[in-house]
Automatic annotation (TrEMBL):
Pfam families (alphabetical): Carb_anhydrase
Cofactors required: Zn(2+)
Listed name of the protein: carbonic anhydrase
UniProt key word Lyase: yes
SMART domains named in the record: Carb_anhydrase
Any one cellular-component term (Gene Ontology): cytoplasm
Localization annotation: Secreted, Extracellular space, Extracellular matrix
Organism: Adineta ricciae (Rotifer)
InterPro entries listed in its UniProt record: CA_dom, CA_dom_sf, Carbonic_anhydrase_a-class
EC nos: 4.2.1.1
Length: 356
């Protein structure tokens, strides 16, 4: 029968077994001689003529203790100074696992947001607002305001900091160009995010501008959640047999940013922002909504132009050759074939139009 007892001459030891077959477990004592049962000092195993002794290394203990104390001290300093660790951005995309139907699980904050974009718009149900005509849009942009082209992993993006002056229409503040990008689908029956009179276009261009009157940075404007931080112009695209020369110069550059993270600097006047605006800037729909990608902040005043832009099937296929994977990834294809968000509930919002 196995026996467990404390050793009389060493209260910090426990012996299991008897005779020549036993295991002695020694606990470390503190400076006052009190036994610390949570910290082992050594283990002695006796099996007949064989003895095996395992001791704790003092050097390792001291090293570990110093390292642990250092980490605890640093953590204490961080908390004392009010420092916060930066959480890594959760992954999202347009796939079944990480796509729009899963965004509210990946980002629980989205569950509380009720005024999201895109939406379905019916012309007859949109309210005609004559003040939009009396207060026309002004969109003034230098030819060199488009300076970089990159693959974000979700779409292409053209951005720049050149001079722009944007105001009028549904806003009184001044806005500045930030970037433009596009959404498209896997076929000619899908692609645009907004749907007008039950018609979904093959693609949708978004020109994003930010409020320089009320905010000091684009990031501050984007997270404002007041429908006045960003002014986003949406241009829907229709497929046509021939290439659109206005899009041609941009699309010819896409092979240089085929993979996620790739970025190039644009030569002056290669991509002109004016070429992506419709000729008729007076006819549009407008409403309050959100960004259509996480974090889907409700900081956007939308302007959806009535006039469409053209794009050929060949040019559409060039868009679908962009990849959501990096050049170092071993994925065979990883093409961005579909990158639009499904329609969201209107939830009582009013939609206006500038035309009769």
């Amino acid at each position: 029968m196995t026996r467990v007892k404390m050793v009389e001459d060493n209260p910090g030891a426990v012996v299991i077994g008897r005779g020549n077959d036993r295991v002695a477990i020694n606990f470390k004592s503190n400076q006052l001689g009190q036994v610390q049962t949570g910290l082992l000092s050594s283990i002695l195993i006796e099996l007949g003529d064989i003895e095996i002794e395992i001791r704790r290394s003092k050097k390792a203990l001291e090293t570990r203790s110093k390292s642990l104390n250092h980490r605890l001290n640093e953590l204490g300093k961080s908390k004392k100074n009010g420092e916060k660790s930066k959480p890594s951005q959760a992954h999202w995309d347009y796939s079944p696992l990480f796509g729009p139907n899963m965004w509210s699980r990946i980002f629980p904050e989205l569950k509380d947001r009720k005024f999201q974009s895109p939406i379905r718009i019916y012309t007859e149900q949109a309210e005609y607002e004559p003040i939009l005509t009396r207060h026309p849009l002004i969109f003034d942009a230098d030819d060199d305001c488009c300076q970089t082209l990159e693959n974000t992993g979700h779409t292409f993006q053209v951005s720049g900091t050149g001079h722009t002056y944007i105001t009028g229409g549904p806003v009184l503040d001044e806005f500045q160009f930030l970037q433009f990008h596009m959404h498209w689908g896997a076929n000619e029956h899908e692609g645009s995010e907004h749907v007008i009179d039950d018609v979904r276009s093959v693609a949708e261009l978004h020109i994003v501008t930010w409020n320089t009157t009320q905010f000091s940075t684009p990031q501050e404007a984007a997270i404002s959640d007041q429908f006045d931080g960003l002014l986003v112009f949406a241009v829907l695209l229709n497929v046509v047999p021939t290439d659109n020369p206005m899009l041609g110069q941009l699309i010819e550059l896409l092979p240089q940013i085929a993979h996620k993270g790739e970025k190039i600097t644009l030569d002056s006047n290669v991509v002109s922002l004016r070429n992506f605006m419709p000729k008729n800037m007076e006819d549009y729909y407008t409403y309050s909504g959100s960004l259509t990608t996480p974090m889907c902040y409700e900081s956007v005043r939308w302007i959806i132009y009535r006039e469409r832009m053209s794009i050929s099937r060949k040019q559409l296929n060039q868009l679908r050759k962009l990849k959501h994977t990096c050049a170092s990834d071993k994925a065979v294809n990883g093409y961005i074939k579909k990158n639009f968000r499904p329609l969201m509930p209107i939830n009582g919002r009013r939609i206006f139009r500038s035309f009769r």
